[in-house]
Amino acid sequence: MRVLLFPFSMLCVLLSTLFSPLYAADDWYRPPVSVTWQWQLDDIVNEGYDVDLYDIDLFDSSHELIQRLQASGKKVICYFSAGSYEDWRSDATEFAMKDLGKTLSGWDDERWLDIRSSEVREVMIRRLDLALTKGCDGVEPDNVDSYRTNTGFSFRANDQLDYNRFLATEAHSRGLAIGLKNDPDQARALSNDFDFAITEQCFEYSECRSYSSFIKAGKPVLNAEYRRIYVDDESERNSVCKQSERLQFSTLVLPKALDDAFRFSCLP
User: Fold this and answer.
1) What is the pLDDT of residues 42-96, one digit of tens each?
2) How many CB atoms lie within 10 A of CB 267?
3) Which Pfam families has this protein been placed in (predicted)?
């Protein structure tokens, strides 16, 4: 008797095919403006925060963890990098060498991806399938603004818009919410395609106003600030929180490692 062994990625595709009919058109999670959240991508996830949603790593988070968070009334957003190759990921061997560009500044084990590549897009489809099979409510694809960087490839802003819309369409077809990550110059153009925005240090770098189109559309902006002064100086932290409140942003002051070493929220 022959036993057929399926690769894990193929199993994800098969399972997603079974699950996808469960979702009607436009049936996915849409977080509201001023949603409360916790963002932790490293170390054992602290499940104790009374918030509306958790943003955690897709690969490192078990189905059981996601289920526990959801059972406590939380939505779960699952993080993965959509614009860079990470050599430690379980699907790293699925990328073609021709699609790997320059090393990311400060991240020696990551390389930029050629977002125009059909092979890269197939890997991202399998990652979205994995998010579906694990039970994530939505996804946070990272590094989706690489057109502004010297990646080693020659692609332009329109290529980035096309790739980001591809990700949004594929996520929504699986009943997954999707957030736009750190792409301020294209935020207005993409606010109809994405369900929320996630930005880092928008107050520090004076980029917050770029995301106003999300708020106007009734979609939240989840912001994280890392400056040490916001941790050590309560008056400085209160000042940035007042600015965040005026903009209706959901701002957290967090460690850059996103390991839950500390956490300050501008929302109750």
Assistant:
1) 999 999 999 999 999 999 999 999 999 999 999 999 999 999 999 999 999 999 9
2) 16
3) Glyco_hydro_114
Which whole number is the average pLDDT over 108-113? 96
Task: Give the start-to-end residue ranges of the domains of the chain.
Answer: 27-265
CA distance 255 to 239: 19
CATH number for the domain formed by residue range(s) 27-265: 3.20.20.70
Give the pLDDT of residue 59.
Answer: 98
Q: What is the mean pLDDT of the chain?
A: 93
Q: Are 70 and 55 in contact (CB under 8 A)?
A: no
Bridge partners of 178, per DSSP, are 139
Non-local CB neighbours of 5 within 8 Å, separated by 6+ positions: none
DSSP output for 28-61: S--PPTT--EEE--SSS-------SEEEEETTTS
Beta bridge partners of 72: none
What's the CA gap between 167 and 82, in Å, rounded? 9
Q: What is the CA radius of gyration of the chain?
A: 18
